[in-house]
Amino acid sequence: MKKLLVLLFLLFFTTSCAYAGSDYLFLDKETKYQKKIMEMGFRILNANRIDKRMTFSYDTNKDVNAYTYGGAKNIVICKGLLPYFDDDNELAAILSHEIAHGMDYHDGFFKSVAMGFAPKKYEEKADKQAVDYMVTAGYNPVALIIVLNKISGEKKGISSWFSTHPAGSRRLVLIYEYIYKKYPGYLVDNDYRRNLYYQNFLLISKDDREKIRERELKKIEKNIKKNEKKEAV
User: pTM of this prediction?
Assistant: First the structure.
């Protein structure tokens, strides 16, 4: 009888532990999204040794949007963005961009004012910083090009004057140029080569990418000539 009681106790205890350790499996989708966003956000912060505190939230709002509350340093990903993510790299791209904004907000009131007066400048700055954060955290920075190609608007001319974001095509080319200069390996050995959205970017940016390559070749040639003159002296 004692053996039976001990066996029942052990069975109950191990079963309880098993369920306690697998609570995550029974969470609803919204809660899982919140946990994923937090985990990835803190992974990016820790990998980049960012010592400024930020928090991460999932909003069930169906707007295709992500934003950073300047005062609270709280980064929010809206539910409407989720259909635009095909992998973790793309979510990491948006989180990294917003973390870059969070870092600017941490610089204080005057930086916040500057961001308000020159929003496009700081959007482009955040894109470049996002690339650095992604690489350091082990994500593929090309994903930033892909996800922004899906969601960025293309306002130009007079209408662009009232927009807080640069035209999508300009953002994509600037990000490509930054990766080309600083992390070219991701473009040579590109996991997204056959990605539908990346192929579209290559199609619409052909002329701009050619200009980037020409500028970089001229810089290389210029440096070679400088070195040759130094050696001659």
Answer: 0.83
